[in-house]
Amino acid sequence: MSSYEIAVLPGDGIGTEVMPEALRVLDAVRAEYGTEFRYRHFDWSCETYRETGRMMPADGIDRLRDHDSILLGAVGYPGVPDHVSLWGLLLPIRREFDQYVNLRPVRLLPGVTPPVRDKAPGDIDFWVVRENTEGEYSRLGGRQGEGTPAEMVLQTAVFTRHGTDRILRYAFEFAERIGKPHVTSGTKSNGIYHSMPYWDERFRAIAAEHPQVAVDQDHIDILCARFVMSPERFDVVVASNLFGDILSDLGPGVTGTIGVAPSGNINPERRFPSTFEPVHGSAPDIAGRGVANPIGQIWSAAMMLDHLGEQDAAADVVRAIESVLGAGAVRTPDLGGTASTADLGKAIAAEI
Amino acid sequence: MSSYEIAVLPGDGIGTEVMPEALRVLDAVRAEYGTEFRYRHFDWSCETYRETGRMMPADGIDRLRDHDSILLGAVGYPGVPDHVSLWGLLLPIRREFDQYVNLRPVRLLPGVTPPVRDKAPGDIDFWVVRENTEGEYSRLGGRQGEGTPAEMVLQTAVFTRHGTDRILRYAFEFAERIGKPHVTSGTKSNGIYHSMPYWDERFRAIAAEHPQVAVDQDHIDILCARFVMSPERFDVVVASNLFGDILSDLGPGVTGTIGVAPSGNINPERRFPSTFEPVHGSAPDIAGRGVANPIGQIWSAAMMLDHLGEQDAAADVVRAIESVLGAGAVRTPDLGGTASTADLGKAIAAEI
Ligand SMILES: CC(C)[C@H](C(=O)O)[C@@H](O)C(=O)O
Ligand SMILES: CC(C)[C@H](C(=O)O)[C@@H](O)C(=O)O
């Protein structure tokens, strides 16, 4: 019987409300599949920051290191600047644990009305594979001439061969593994002079290693437009840190699933724990009322199960989500219903 | 009677097919409003590049300088790498002529079926104001360790006080001028460490100079999603060069108008000529068949008229476009009809 050590970080806002529902569903998985989970809870958050001036303790990364996975809620709260909360917790975890893949499904779900017309479940079903450790998210740069008319800020993006090749390779291998051998690269080599032509060059090189996988590439501007105009054309979309960030919010925007989409921040070699978290943020506007939709957190737990090797349980959780959504009897307000966070969590747990 | 010197650069692909229709409509404007246009034609294009190794002659910029405006078709053709064709023509023109505003309407038009559901003309009607001379489109950077496993590329974005403040100010003044005093800033200060917090700081400073204008800001990832989920919330969206590029393709993607949207590359002080060009590219796949939709080029000519101070004529051209689209009798294949490029151009000219 497998047993896993899970670090649980609910974070801020609705993060603390949706996390218990994911644990409830994992309890159901334990009952059904006999998989053991041992949780350690961490209350690191913007509140910690307000009390201590740090988002996590100085040895925070070390305290997380010995876990099989990290399940994260959401980070960020009014009064703490985003770049403080994120560069103090989320982004160091991604980097220290070399979680170089950010993986997010874009899928039209039963029972969810998308903003685009004429699409049915099955029409839109693809994955965004985002580079998660380098690229445009960089601390290289700074300001000069502060406070003068000549003031300027430089911001340097970093694309290494190591970092670029491994994310591209992951995308090709992932596309083969899921039986959709077709990869689209997001680029902007017509405008961004150095990094994006390099990205294209490496895309061609890694594509040549995978001749059985069909390839496409689109500049990010038209690629975003195509996410709306023809989302059915995509299977696996690979992109840099920034472009992947944009695409993996836009995709769920198109399918109406921003409130329910999950994500994995994955270290594929499993040398370090991977982090699984919903795409949505801490949503201070609705926090504290018990009405947040817990599906993003629950689906993230399913992605975690898949990563841990528990494919059957993972598929079962996704099936339970789809079945409850499809039935439509239990819906939180964002889906047009009146159910609470806990009602929806219980309904899904009951389907396992 | 006003008279204007116009530099006409059809460029590549369908650029050469849609340009004559814009000139046809300007002829109708001349007949109706008595406005004189003197054209100088330039055949600079990817073909020029293949013959001469340059996209334009060494003194190209100087040859354009003495015009009141530049009307551009589309640049780019298979076989010439994008970053060559663009950094050899389009981008130098934007920069040398300090066309620091890239302005694009996002508007649901009659007779165009958008990919989003439940929206009618009037619901979506806003402008993207994009910084057009600095930011992420930069030649600063380079490669080291070429061909080794340590290979890496740096790409540096530049945000000056001068460049940031003037585009933000333009956005606020434009919002007031068009009677929609509400500006949304596209940012990513939670992930991009130096440049985007600076962008936010300057946005706050320039907003403080315009207390009568309402402000909003969204990170680019959720902003893109909101373009799809709730496009009616926007009036004027201001963004950096890259983010503005993405948003001003995505917007027309949402309204189904990529094939018909115009853009202005504007030097507001009129110290240099401004350039007006359709959002669409050279579309090599349909070039040479006389079926391209000329509305993007014609609408660009309308934006040019507006910039030149011919507001009545400009409004008349836009009205003619909407009237022909609304009537629906003359449609090119992209709009579901069988009309030719010239048919549609003639129909619009006849409405002036
Ligand atoms: C062709 C390309 C360099 C250009 C840009 O990104 O500026 C285009 O997408 C545009 O928006 O005019
Ligand atoms: C919060 C922010 C820094 C983060 C990102 O941009 O990576 C978020 O948008 C995400 O996608 O996980």
Automatic annotation (TrEMBL), chains A, B:
Q: Does the keyword Ion transport apply?
A: no
Give EC number(s), comma-separated: 1.1.1.83
Q: Look up the signal peptide feature and give its range.
A: none
User: What's the superkingdom here?
Assistant: Bacteria
Print the keywords alphabetically. Answer: Manganese, Metal-binding, NAD, Oxidoreductase
Family matches, as Pfam families: Iso_dh
* Listed cofactors: Mg(2+); Mn(2+)
Reaction equations catalysed: (R)-malate + NAD(+) = pyruvate + CO2 + NADH
Asked whether the keyword Disulfide bond is assigned, the reply is no
Isopropylmalate dehydrogenase-like domain location, by residue? 5-348
The UniProt entry, under NCBIfam families, shows: TTC
Q: Which PANTHER family match?
A: D-MALATE DEHYDROGENASE [DECARBOXYLATING] (PTHR43275:SF1)
Family, per entry:
Belongs to the isocitrate and isopropylmalate dehydrogenases family.
Q: Can you say what this protein is called?
A: D-malate dehydrogenase (decarboxylating)
Q: Give the originating organism.
A: Saccharopolyspora gregorii
